[in-house]
Amino acid sequence: MSDKKKPSKSVKRSSARLAAVQALYEVELSDSNVDDVLISFLKTRWDTPQEMGDESQETSPLTEPDKNLFTDLLRGVYSQKEQMEEMLAGALSQEWSPDRLETIVRIILMAGIYELYNRKDVPPRVVITQYVDVAHAFFEGPEPGFVNGVLDRMAKTLRPDDFK
Question: SS3 for 138-151, per residue?
Answer without folding.
Answer: HCCCCHHHHHHHHH
